[in-house]
């Protein structure tokens, strides 16, 4: 009996030593090395994709076509800054806009001899999928997305190799957080907060909570199917507070005796919309990219002089933004000077693209929304903007 206890004690010690040895080997990286040497993974378990290669490998050696032989497709979710895009492309052609509309060629066609079409999306998630697919597979070549969305979608858009080219506009009141039964942000503790998790309004809500010192776990998040659902969720009582487009949530809050607690006017450099191109498209058609940038900047300059036409086009595709002129005012299209400062080429900006992208990825990783993210410099291409800027110097 004593012999059995002795062997049991020795076995327990041996297991303890083995466990400690394995833990030490794991921390020092020896376990992975032994697995790679003696139990290598079969090739069939390794998945490779186009994202493992540079985006421009399929571009022609000689510039066969400076622009696509088909119309260039630019996707967007309507915002105030979209007015410049609509002027550049001539508006959105769809079955809902019938023969009564005023047809316009657009700046790209009339001034730069390039066919382009604006494609409107109601949800940011659908726009992300279109950018991932590409125009040759039913998607788009370029897209207007906020920097925080580009940060959150970095991994899923890896194969598309998206590159930010141009600042389209900054939200100066386009997003808002409204509530019923709360007079200030700190009173959101324990409340149901509705947000579309794939939209920039969600990112704005995170900023608003941080400003009030409200921990994320002290708010009950209500996931919405789109940003456009925010007003309905508040009006129907499915949420105590919502974040979404200002015109939508303000009206819903007013109907229930609530109020808007904060808008992006309090954080005018937080939600910044940029024009993003698929890496392969930008590498294959560099002249097309430069023409698009020129047309967009022309559209911005035109709206700065007279927003009437841009407001008309915006009102046709996005009546939910409210008064289109006010929508443009709350996110006016960015000009060349603002672009040069935003991308660090000249002048100064309170927040640059790199700073905004890096802070977005750090926050999203902190709250567990993403696991990894690319470096800011790997997600932008300032070459076309620099080229256009130098060409416009007197």
Structure description:
With 394 residues, the protein is α/β, with parallel strands linked by helices. The protein has 2 domains: 64-171 and 271-391, 3-Layer(aba) Sandwich (D-Maltodextrin-Binding Protein, domain 2); 175-266, Periplasmic binding protein-like II (D-Maltodextrin-Binding Protein, domain 2, 3-Layer(aba) Sandwich). The chain has helices at 2-28, 30-38, 82-89, 107-112, 124-133, 147-152, 200-212, 230-235, 246-255, 279-284, 286-305, 308-317, 324-330, 336-342, 353-366, 383-391, and strands spanning 72-76, 116-120, 142-146, 163-170, 175-179, 192-195, 220-223, 241-245, 259-263, 272-277. Helix 3 crosses helix 12. It is globular. The N and C termini lie far apart (100 Å).
Question: C-alpha Rg, in Å?
Answer: 26 Å
Unreliable stretches covering 5 or more consecutive residues:
95-101
Q: What share of the residues lie within helices?
A: 40-55%
Number of domains: 2
Please give the CATH architecture of the largest domain. 3-Layer(aba) Sandwich
The shape, in one word, is globular
What is the β-strand count? 10
Largest sheet entry: 5 strands, mixed
Q: What is the topology, as strand order, of the major beta sheet? A: 2-1-3-10-4
Mean pLDDT: 89
Strand percentage? 5-15%
Assigned CATH superfamily of the largest domain: Periplasmic binding protein-like II
Secondary structure category = alpha/beta
Name the helix and strand elements from N-terminus to C-terminus, one letter apiece. Answer: HHEHHEHEHEEEHEHEHEEHHHHHHH
């Amino acid at each position: 009996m004593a012999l059995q206890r002795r062997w049991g004690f020795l076995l327990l010690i041996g297991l303890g030593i083995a466990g400690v040895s394995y833990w030490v080997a794991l921390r020092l990286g020896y376990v992975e090395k032994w697995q790679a040497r003696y139990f290598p993974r079969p090739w069939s378990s390794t998945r490779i994709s186009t994202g493992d290669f540079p985006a421009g490998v399929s571009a022609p050696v000689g510039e066969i076509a400076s622009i696509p032989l088909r119309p260039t497709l630019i996707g967007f979710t309507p915002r105030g800054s979209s007015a410049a895009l609509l002027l550049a492309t001539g508006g959105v052609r769809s079955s809902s806009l019938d023969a009564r509309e005023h047809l316009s060629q657009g700046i790209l066609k009339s001034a730069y001899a390039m066919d382009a079409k604006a494609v409107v999306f109601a949800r940011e998630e659908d726009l992300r999928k279109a950018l991932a697919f590409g125009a040759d597979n039913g998607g788009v070549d370029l897209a207007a997305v906020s920097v925080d969305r580009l940060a959150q979608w970095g991994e899923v858009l890896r194969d598309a190799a998206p590159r930010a080219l141009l600042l389209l506009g900054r939200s100066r009141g386009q997003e808002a957080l409204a509530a019923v039964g709360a007079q200030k942000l700190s009173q959101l503790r324990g409340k149901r907060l509705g947000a579309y998790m794939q939209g920039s309004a969600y990112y704005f809500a995170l900023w608003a909570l941080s400003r009030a010192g409200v921990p994320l776990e002290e708010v009950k998040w209500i996931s919405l199917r789109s940003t456009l659902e925010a007003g309905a969720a508040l009006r129907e009582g499915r949420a105590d507070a919502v974040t979404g487009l200002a015109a939508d949530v303000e009206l819903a809050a007013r109907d229930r005796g609530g109020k808007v607690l904060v808008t992006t006017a309090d954080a005018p450099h937080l939600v910044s919309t940029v024009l993003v191109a698929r890496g392969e498209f930008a590498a294959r058609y560099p002249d097309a990219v430069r023409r698009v940038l020129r047309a967009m900047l022309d559209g911005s300059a035109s709206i700065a002089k007279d927003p009437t036409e841009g407001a008309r086009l915006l009102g046709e595709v996005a009546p939910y933004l409210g008064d289109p002129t006010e929508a443009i005012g709350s996110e006016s299209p960015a000009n060349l000077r603002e672009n040069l400062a935003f991308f660090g080429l000249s002048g100064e900006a309170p927040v640059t693209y790199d700073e905004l992208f890096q802070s977005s990825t750090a926050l999203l990783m902190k709250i567990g929304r993403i696991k990894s993210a690319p470096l800011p410099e790997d997600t932008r291409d300032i070459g076309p903007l620099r080229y256009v800027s130098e060409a416009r110097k007197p």
